[in-house]
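Extended Data, panel c. Modelled sequence:
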Amino acid sequence: FMKKIVHLGLACAAVVVLFFVFPGSSTPEEKIQKRLLQMERDFSRGNGRLCSKGLTDDFRDGTSGIGKADFRSILAQMVLTEKDKNTNQFLYRVVLPVEEMSIAVDPADPTRAHVDLVAVFEKLSGEEWRLFWKAAVSGDLIEGKDGWQIRQSTHVTLDGKPFR
């Protein structure tokens, strides 16, 4: 019986090592999804510096015209002014439903990809999160030394009002 437990423990350890030590075994689509979900977490924590790591230095949103520096500045201003007075919690979060994400790596150039997703921005009101803005987002990504990053995007408002 002890031998089986030891073997099970070794098998679990091997899975953990393969998953965390060798993340390079992920497909490009999985790496892109992981990057986007990390950006989701970083935005929701109000961390513009980390969130903007998912954007290339020459990033541009074709709908609003903002670039990476603008994005970081806007998020930094929001974090300073949009906090709960009692808990100091950032009042906004974004949810990127995975089931509404479509990722296509360019077969002719595997360092380029396109993503279509829905971004649901919510604002904390009392104890509950309420829809603030919902947008359909399209973006082009490139893979470089910093992993997959969004180079350009466009968006269409589905509900609510965009940030000003």
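Confidence is low (pLDDT under 50) at residues 12-22. This feature is highlighted in the accompanying rendering.
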